[in-house]
Design a protein that fits this description.
The protein has 202 residues and is mainly beta. It has one domain: Beta Barrel (Porin), CATH 2.40.160.20. Helices cover 7% and strands 61% of the residues. It contains one helix and ten strands, in the order H-E-E-E-E-E-E-E-E-E-E. The protein has one helix spanning 2-16, and strands at 40-49, 58-70, 73-82, 85-98, 103-115, 121-135, 138-151, 158-172, 175-184, 192-201. Strands 1-2-3-4-5-6-7-8-9-10 form a ten-stranded antiparallel beta barrel. The longest helix has 15 residues, at 2-16.
């Protein structure tokens, strides 16, 4: 029943989301541990991009669907929907360091962004992620997220850079609550906050 509710909720939010036009935005929303081998992941995260230079904050939705290919490697499709923008991509993550109290992963991906009011873009995504588990059901993580966007026609290329602290709390055997704050590190980026659920299907 819970799986059905999550699927219906994800479809509904993706269909009705309509925030204001902004730069493309991705979220990490996971610890440094990869998806368990053979498991599927379905996740949905309402996201707010904070206003800058006098602009308004706007709401959108981000989602991820992934699969654990090996004990250390997973792949995830991702999407972000805001008014005037559709963002789609894919990421691969490798669990580089598996420690008792510390884990490190690296990610590499690509995305395409469809803008209504400007040239479309495509880009490369990279991430470096650290996490630790101070108590059994809680993981704290921090990451550096970079995106390199190339625009069609004569528009300039841009780099988006964020420092990302977050947490992942296990609500049940197959359900996690996640929340993170993306701190913009350059003028092209916008700080954001995101919170939502990740469901794992075995």
């Amino acid at each position: 029943m819970l799986k059905t509710v999550m699927v219906i909720l994800a479809a509904t939010v993706f269909l009705v989301a309509a925030p204001a036009e902004v730069s493309a935005q991705d979220v990490l929303m996971n610890s440094a541990e990869t998806i368990n081998q053979g498991n599927f992941k379905l996740a949905l995260f309402p996201t707010v991009l904070f206003g800058k230079n006098g602009g308004d904050s706007v709401w959108g939705v981000a989602g991820r669907a992934g699969y654990g290919l090996t004990p250390r490697f997973d792949i995830e499709a991702k999407a972000g929907i805001f008014k005037g923008i559709n963002y789609f991509g894919v990421d691969a993550e490798y669990w580089l360091v598996q420690g008792r109290n510390a884990n490190v992963s690296v990610g590499l991906g690509a995305h395409m962004t469809d803008y209504q009011a400007r040239a479309d873009s495509s880009g490369i995504d990279t991430s470096l992620l650290f996490s630790t588990s101070p108590v059994k059901q809680l993981e704290l993580y921090g990451g550096l997220k970079l995106a390199f966007d190339s625009f069609k026609n004569s528009d300039p290329n841009v780099t988006l850079a964020h420092l990302v602290p977050g947490l992942e709390y296990r609500l049940g055997p197959d359900l996690d609550l996640l929340a993170e704050f993306g701190i913009a590190l350059n003028e092209n980026s916008r700080s954001y906050a995101s919170v939502g659920l990740a469901l794992y299907l075995r």
